[in-house]
Design goal:
Shape: globular
Largest sheet: 5 strands, antiparallel
Structural class: alpha+beta
Strand content: 15-25%
Number of helices: 12
Radius of gyration: 21 Å
Distance between the termini: 23 Å
Number of strands: 9
Amino acid sequence: MIDYTGFADRLAACPDRAARWDLLRDVQREWGFVGAGNVWTPRTEPVTETFEDLYDEFEGFDEADDDHGYAAVVPAAVNEYFAMAENSFRQAPRLYWTHPMDRPCRWPTARDVFRLRKHGIAEASIPPFHGEFMSEYEACFSWGYRESEAAADDDPPVYVLNSSRLTGELIEDLAEGPDDPENQLRVARSVTEWALAFVLTRLPFSSQYLLGKLEDEPNAVDPSLFDHAAVARHRVKDIGALTERQRSVLESSFPELGLLFWHDAGGGRLRGGRDVILRQWKDGDLFGSDYELSIAARTPEAMDAALATIGLEE
């Protein structure tokens, strides 16, 4: 039995990012992922393509400043994440439905910033440079770090970014002042904490479903990556709405995991109990859900116990 009511203490006990990577490996094994064959090397080839200026917008742009869309700073933790042998995202991407940038992209780009300045956007309103390393499946948003923070920290904070906006949309959004803070929300205190939240919002809730696809889709995932006996005992349940009493019991009996609020449609407030991980959404959350609560349990008994505690006995 794994008691996730104490997960915040497990996280706080990690003295550095190496310890947080070990915690990530432990969490994956606890939820039946046993793969250890990821092979990855960062893309570091020089950029050789040239950009044809099709618009007068770029007249005066110094080609020496062109970043070709790539981040100028890549913190060690990002490369470590993608290179980790036990990386459930790299080996079973259909658990996640996101797209990686193996070489982090820059947002906004140098050309974006040149156009913003040319349109009279105040320097203080221009978003700082971020390095995007992962995007939502349809590129509605991305996750990235601020280059200025990464220059001083190998494991910098991570932000969820509204980076899908065209430059024209950015000009309109910034015309009256700095960007809305909701377009650059801090979602983790470090890349390693981001990776933990990324796994905890998906692996417990999706492994059994993904393995169940193998009968009709043999290439859905490599079955050797999972402990099938363990995953077969998983249970997942979505709850449309709670009563005030059930909500009170949930919040008093299942503490948060010590991670920041996960700002995407698959996240919510992460809570823990005995052999269970719970995702909770509340009215007013930036990213909502069709449910107020989702529960993932390592065993049928753990699911029954969690439902009984909250007052949701079937």
